[in-house]
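TA notes. Do not distribute before section.
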Amino acid sequence: MSNDYRAVEDVPIDVLARRLETLSGSIVRRETHELTLRVPAELDRDADIVLSEVALRIHDLRAAFGVLRGMVGENDNDLDDVDSDTVKAFIRSAEKLFDGQPQ
């Protein structure tokens, strides 16, 4: 873990995901040393920051999906009519979200 990131939004999703796995294992094993907070904060390590950022990104992804779903309709049959531009736009949006740049 490090102080390599200036903002929590800059931490890549794969770094956050690995940290979640570590935190989960620590909680199961009742190891509290992984739950300590650092000063200055380590944006890719401190449990409160990591958990909060992952929650925000999940909310952002859900919102992005809701927009896409609204574009194509609520019925699964509507998905057959999706054009490639719509799919490309969603993929670009998701890529930005998961590269640490929430919409």
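Switch to the second chain here.
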Amino acid sequence: MSQETDAVLRKSLDAVDQHQKRLIWTAGAIATVLALVAFYQLRGQTDDVRKSIRALMFVMALWTSGWALVIVLQITVATKRILRAIDLASKPRA
């Protein structure tokens, strides 16, 4: 590969890394706040154990689904950027 191709690919990979860091911090903050709010809401429901366990399981399912969504979005964005960079690098320069 030429140095131009390497530079285009490096720039694309750096953009993917930067996006990943932003996405993880943002999603982590949102997920943490939502989980804390849900746990705070459940705090007063200790009189019915079954209801509390169901609610906690629901919160944990949402937590897991949210992080799965973040991972899927990150993989999609990374793949698109890398493929676009490869496509740009493979086109002949005029």
